[in-house]
Amino acid sequence: MPGITHNPPPPAVDPDLLAAFQDVATATISDCLDRMPVLLGLRAFHRHGRLLGTAFTVQVRAGDNLAIHQALEQARRGDVIVVDGGGDTSRALVGDVMKAIAESRGVAGFVVDGAVRDTDAFAESDFPCYARAAIPRGPFKTGPGATNLPVSIGGWTVNPGDVVVGDADGVVTFPPALAPGLIEAVHAQVARENEVLAQIRAGRYDGRYAREAKG
């Protein structure tokens, strides 16, 4: 449609690769990637539930959600709609109707660098939604916009097809190519932390964890 540029979708990500991160904390992922892949300033609006999927990126002009509506028509099951709204919070880009559309199409969740509305609907649901703010004012639907291109969310670049993980602490993303090595690093980090916690409970902690920590 006029005003919206649609780029080809990225290759699908192996479901087994995604499943490996099902129970991994975003804090651990961030630690194992030099504490870098964090989407700053976003908070969860949903009741509960982890976010896990692949990025279907959308870029919109401030306060306009036409490209998001079109993205919902194109997204694959398990995609996360990641919206670069420029951090503008003057109009909501996503609300209850778009949530219902997304759920009906198997979308894994929303990540919005902008505002949302109908927050009671999200708060009563486990459908993941992360955004910068809430406001009742609705959006324009005239464009322009674009889909499946690199976008900047909270100071971090998200590429189409990146793995997206969200929990109560926030959202992190990383390229699928990093996943095999990353999951090994994550398991090692979890083992170290569990060992330290066991030492603390047993009264044997000697401070080595802090001395050996990176950064």
TrEMBL record:
InterPro entries: RraA/RraA-like, RraA/RraA-like_sf
Cofactor: a divalent metal cation
Coiled-coil residues: none
A Pfam short name: RraA-like
CDD domains, per the entry: RraA_family
NCBIfam families per record: PRK06201.1
Name of the molecule in the record: Putative 4-hydroxy-4-methyl-2-oxoglutarate aldolase
Organism: Methylobacterium brachiatum
